[in-house]
């Protein structure tokens, strides 16, 4: 029988304990985007999680549930993540911003007029948001991506922002609600799955979402007009509970991060393709490759409204964001100004 000296035996025991401490979990529950939100969830997100071990190179199986089939509200993403009811969550950042207003800094009205500028702003701000989620929600932010430019769908006829005065408009965060209030509209917070029926029943006159999501959820069936003025990008993100994250070795953590980086890059590119295609589908244009054809009337965007949105960051959105965010996170606006604000020259 071989006998180990004490130092060698101690080293072996320590190695065994260390290996046990970072044993990858066999299975994780993941909460996804709503099925009704469309092609990003169907064609990229769900297949990624269904083939998680193959995509990441780690031996973990995922039990994946879209949020609208799980019994969980999309506003509860951070809470279920912190409590490890789901180990990974596809966060809808505007919807969860009531729990963490810092996340609003990814997408103030007028902040992200193009995909290129939006990506620069996201990359700059992600470390700020990640640090905040780690501190308050025991969660690591793995990446952030856009659903795409958010535009205005209405059943009553409109010809520009001035025509929203007096109308009830579905919004999904406080920054957008404040912007609509300043236009004289009545902002109505509705979850995405409720909005199509809300328009059909006259609960709201108009709603803001992306063309692809609107197409998938049947908004053109209950609206007649679309005003393709982008006001936001509707950012989303992937986050993992830190207790789950810390079960992985350093090598597996690197593999996970690389896989999510790849998925996020795919979604950024796909989001832009979907936006252009769905914009054509919704208004009877060709080619219409990924959605259902509809015949909405598209209203030409006027220069005054473009200027209103471009000026909204400094004039409206940023003051509103500072008021909301600095209450709970004293360094919030300073962090935003040092990252996104610097990118925008503010």
TrEMBL record:
Keywords: Signal, Transport. CDD domains: PBP2_TRAP_BpDctp6_7 (cd13602). Residues 1-23 form the signal peptide. InterPro entries: DctP_fam, TRAP_DctP_sf. Belongs to the bacterial solute-binding protein 7 family. This is TRAP transporter substrate-binding protein. It comes from Billgrantia campisalis.
